[in-house]
Amino acid sequence: MLKIGDFSRLSQISIRMLRHYDELGLLIPESTDPFTGYRYYGEAQLSDARKISMLKAMGFPLAEIVGILAIFEDSEQLRPYLLRQRRLRRRRKFCGANSVFWKTHWGESERMNGI
């Protein structure tokens, strides 16, 4: 078992965020001292912490990460989902950028006329 400070250093997630993740049910400590409220994490939870950090870095909001991790417990199951999401996000980004381009350079009315 790792104290919250040790787990924080190893996972590179602040103690404040670990407490927040606990409140959200995202990363619940393996045990909590009933008298002090001190949190203890298992070494196996480091892989969950890495998944959370990776998903956050990809731009997923915490509420969505909770759902993703509930559905995909195994990293091999998660991989195809993430690849599909990356493709969708790229398409949305391209379409959004393309829309901004048209509005900026030709205006909405010309775009509608196919010019």
Distance between the termini: 65 Å
How many strands, which pairing sense, and closed or not: the largest β-sheet? 3 strands, antiparallel
Order of helices and strands: EHHEEHHHH
Radius of gyration (Å): 21 Å
Residue stretches low in confidence (pLDDT < 50, at least 5 long) are 108-115
Q: What key phrases describe this protein's structure?
A:
6% strand, mainly alpha, 6 helices, 115 residues, disordered C terminus
Describe this structure in words.
The protein has 115 residues and is mainly alpha-helical. It starts with a strand and ends with a helix. A hairpin with a 6-residue loop joins β2 (31-32) and β3 (39-41). The protein has helices spanning 4-11, 15-24, 45-57, 62-71, 75-105, 107-112; strands at residues 2-3, 31-32, 39-41. It has 6 helices and 3 strands; from the N terminus they run βααββαααα. Residues 108-115 have low confidence and may be disordered. It has a 3-stranded antiparallel beta sheet, covered by helices on one side.
